[in-house]
């Protein structure tokens, strides 16, 4: 193949055609379309990944990587099991808890939610939000830490006495009264998600053992922190056998993350159509070039140029337009990523999304998928006009043109 001839003609066809400006304009539009498509795909995938990871991080605050529950409601986990788990899995962090629904009252204002009895030192190791609220406080047995939504609603300040009503009932003569106890408000936490800030409360595990008449050293469950929850859940299940069940965060919030994954896939397909539409301009531009250069192509073929060389010329023209659009789109996408990541160009309502900063995280797998998809579309779009260029009837074209 005569590479010099091919390169010379490719350069000629890439120049702006003053006689047929619409051909060059169509090629420019194809370049811009591919460029914008790749850029938008990179930014969209980064935002989708960032949003998913941000919600995952927030959910981990109160929905721990792994949680151990009794197999049956009549059975409680005990200190002996906790000790054996800590000995068998020293790389994991365990925090036993007792939980109950409760209503908290201060003055005439009331708010409902979940209260957890925990061991402060153990809970602080796996819950950074609780750890921040705990600080250097030395909590007494009936001290309480609440979400900021509860403390704001009830106007609680450190040292304020508040009453908690539990769902368990106490018999009093001929009636049943809910269990109630005065607690001292110690501090509040802000998780970034209102659903938790308005519902979650923490106290000592001894307080709930006393109020709910639980035996000392028994728990409703054990929260587990793991750096590789998918692998550790199987190890824990094998070790625990029929003693207890283990639930992962992805099982507790499976529908939410499945919906986000489906939305991300749908968005990827829709935005890939932008590149597909832009590639139609590559096809139309090359086909118009073929039609306007029929005489030149016929002359080249009659002078000894091969069909392979003609096909290579138009394939290179199409791929140069498409690949330059892809590369420019990648550059603009990363510039946009850097701008959005370092400057508050887009701000979010923190009470809705849990963060005012736009979360960004471009996964390598998504980036590679974008590049592969764009390259395949460009190659297919360039191949069809290139193959049509070799189907010219040389004798007929030279006779009539």
Automatic annotation (TrEMBL):
Subcellular location(s) of the protein: Cell membrane
A Gene Ontology biological process term: lipoprotein localization to outer membrane
ABC3 transporter permease C-terminal domain location: 269-393
Ligase is among the record's keywords: no
Keyword Transport appears in the UniProt entry: no
GO cellular component terms attached to this protein's record: plasma membrane protein complex
Signal peptide limits: none
Membrane topology field: Multi-pass membrane protein
Transmembrane annotation, as ranges: 21-48, 266-292, 313-340, 360-380
Keywords: Cell membrane, Membrane, Transmembrane, Transmembrane helix
UniProt family annotation: Belongs to the ABC-4 integral membrane protein family. LolC/E subfamily.
Descriptive protein name: ABC3 transporter permease C-terminal domain-containing protein
């Amino acid at each position: 193949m005569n590479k010099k001839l091919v390169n010379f003609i490719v350069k000629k066809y890439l120049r702006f055609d003053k006689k047929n400006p619409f051909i060059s304009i169509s090629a420019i539009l194809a370049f811009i379309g591919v460029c914008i498509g790749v850029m938008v795909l990179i930014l969209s995938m980064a935002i989708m990944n960032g949003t998913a990871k941000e919600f995952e991080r927030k959910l981990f605050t109160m929905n721990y990587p792994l949680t151990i529950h009794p197999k049956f409601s009549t059975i409680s986990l005990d200190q002996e099991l906790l000790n054996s788990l800590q000995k068998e899995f020293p790389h994991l962090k365990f925090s036993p808890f007792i939980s109950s629904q409760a209503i908290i009252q201060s003055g005439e204002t009331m708010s409902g939610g979940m209260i957890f009895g925990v061991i402060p030192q153990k809970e602080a190791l796996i819950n950074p939000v609780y750890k921040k609220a705990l600080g250097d406080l030395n909590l007494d047995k009936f001290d309480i830490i609440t979400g900021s939504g509860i403390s704001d609603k009830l106007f609680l300040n450190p040292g304020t006495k508040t009453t908690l009503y539990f769902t368990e009932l106490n018999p009093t003569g001929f009636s049943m009264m809910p269990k109630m106890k005065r607690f001292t408000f110690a501090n509040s936490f802000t998780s970034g998600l209102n659903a938790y800030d308005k519902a979650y409360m923490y106290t000592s595990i001894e307080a709930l053992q006393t109020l709910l008449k639980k035996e000392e050293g028994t728990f409703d469950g054990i929260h587990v922190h793991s750096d590789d929850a998918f692998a550790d859940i199987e190890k824990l299940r094998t070790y625990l056998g029929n003693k207890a069940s283990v639930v992962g965060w992805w099982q507790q919030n499976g529908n939410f993350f499945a919906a986000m994954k489906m939305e991300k896939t749908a968005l990827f397909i829709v935005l890939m159509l932008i590149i597909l539409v832009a590639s139609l301009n590559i096809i139309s531009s090359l086909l118009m070039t073929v039609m306007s250069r029929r005489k030149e192509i016929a002359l080249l073929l009659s002078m000894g140029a091969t069909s392979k060389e003609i096909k290579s010329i138009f394939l290179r023209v199409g791929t140069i337009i498409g690949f330059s659009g892809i590369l420019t789109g990648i550059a603009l996408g990363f510039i946009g990523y850097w701008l959005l990541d370092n400057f508050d160009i887009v701000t979010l309502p923190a009470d809705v999304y849990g963060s005012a900063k736009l979360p960004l995280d471009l996964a390598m797998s998504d980036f590679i998928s974008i590049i592969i998809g764009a390259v395949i579309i460009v190659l297919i779009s360039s191949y069809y006009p290139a193959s049509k260029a070799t189907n010219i009837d040389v004798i007929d074209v030279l006779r009539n043109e």
